[in-house]
Amino acid sequence: MKISTKGRYALRLMLDLAEHRSDGFVSLKDIAERQGISKKYLEQIIPMLNTPELLRTNRGFQGGYCLAQPPEYYSVGMILRLTEGSLAPVACLAQQPNTCDRAEDCCTLYVWEGLNKVITDYLNSITLQDILDRKSESYSFNYNI
Known about the structure:
Helices cover 50% and strands 6% of the residues. The chain is mainly α. It has a two-stranded antiparallel ribbon. Strand 1 (55-58) and strand 2 (64-67) form a beta hairpin. It starts with a helix and ends in a 5-residue tail after the last helix.
């Protein structure tokens, strides 16, 4: 499994919205400038995330995007699955139930199922709020006298 730039940038986009949630609606232009990502590329990513339970949108002057839920609602796993599709380490686990002809006789299936569980559990356990908290902690220890 390799996370594409689309998945990584989607996570950065959502983190930017979480970090600037007190600013109201945030334009893609502002996110692009802060994150060093092309606005055109963000325009390709945003439709994957633009559902009523994830984002609120406002068109026109002062338009943009904001999170529909608090940052602790959004897991890294949720965001990556929306942009990457399945995060399964092997193709046969990408669909549930597993429709592989060899599933019943596959002696390595338990290895891939275990890896899939570890990946899923880990990515689902980290929220946008967790990342913001960790970022805040690292800044609090970074000072000069």
